[in-house]
From TrEMBL:
Keywords: Membrane, Oxidoreductase, Transmembrane, Transmembrane helix. Residues 6-179 form the Ketoreductase domain. It holds the Pfam family adh_short_C2. Belongs to the short-chain dehydrogenases/reductases (SDR) family. InterPro entries: KR_dom (IPR057326), NAD(P)-bd_dom_sf (IPR036291), Sc_DH/Rdtase_CS (IPR020904), SDR (IPR050259), SDR_fam (IPR002347). This is Beta-ketoacyl-ACP reductase. One of its GO terms (biological process) is monocarboxylic acid metabolic process.
Length: 237
């Protein structure tokens, strides 16, 4: 099968990095579906409303995608939330909300996708982590923990499913220009820019191109890898 005709699922495809990833796969000729909770998805992408913290909604989303496009062959697990606050102020709810979406929700999606991948003896699992997963970030213990855990998930998947021609990799974006960073004050952005060897913030396109690479046939022998897209911010971690 030509790689560009494969079926791709992007979770959290309504805005930011997820939306651009969905658009990039669409423009490259893939059949693309994207889950979202509100907003909507780009034209030419099959939008499926889904809260990945609910296994029933995840199963329903896959059934819809399978009926419309066929079995999912490439998963880009991008959906995530933040509940930032310092450790002493972090409530159980702050912790549970972030872990249940970013980590457990990703697990639910990947578990459901793995069925068809095993049968087809082909699959690409791409987990969107973060530079803070390995670098750490004050005020983000819940978020950093959830993103760090995705590395262990991908590497365990790579060992479990590798013989079936299924790869599992992690993209760790750094400071990327999105709606989330647009609200930060100039001093914070300037401070980060000084710490980034590339001397600039990244673009959502930088992350999308990395996902396209890992999904392609040329990346078939790359598995269990963490691909930083951070301008050098996390080097050594």
């Amino acid at each position: 099968m030509a790689e560009q005709s494969r079926v791709v699922l992007v979770t959290g495809g309504s805005k930011g990095i997820g939306r651009t990833i969905a658009e990039s796969f669409r423009d490259a000729g893939y059949s693309v579906a994207a889950t979202y909770r509100s907003g909507g998805v780009p034209d030419g992408v099959l939008g499926v409303v889904c809260d990945i913290t609910d296994q029933g909604q995840v199963d329903q989303a896959f059934e819809t995608i399978e009926a419309e496009l066929g079995p999912v062959e490439i998963v880009v697990a991008n959906a995530g939330v933040t509940k930032d606050t310092l450790l002493m102020r972090m409530s159980d709810e702050d912790w549970n909300t972030v872990i249940d979406t970013n980590l457990t929700g990703t697990f639910r999606v990947v578990r459901r996708a793995s069925r068809a991948m095993m049968r087809a003896r082909f699959g690409r699992v791409i987990l969107i982590s973060s530079v803070v997963g390995l670098l750490g970030s004050a005020g983000q213990i819940n978020y950093a923990s959830s993103k760090s855990a995705l590395v262990g998930m991908a590497r365990s998947l790579a060992r479990e499913l590798g013989s079936r021609n299924v790869t599992a990799n992690v993209i760790a974006p750094g400071f990327i220009e999105t709606d989330m960073t647009a609200v930060l004050d100039e001093a914070t952005i300037s401070d980060y820019t000084k710490r980034i060897p590339a001397g600039r913030l990244g673009s959502v396109d930088d992350v999308a191109q990395a996902a396209l690479f890992l999904a392609g046939d040329h990346a078939g022998y790359i598995s269990g890898a963490v691909l930083p897209v951070d301008g050098g911010l996390g080097m050594g971690h």
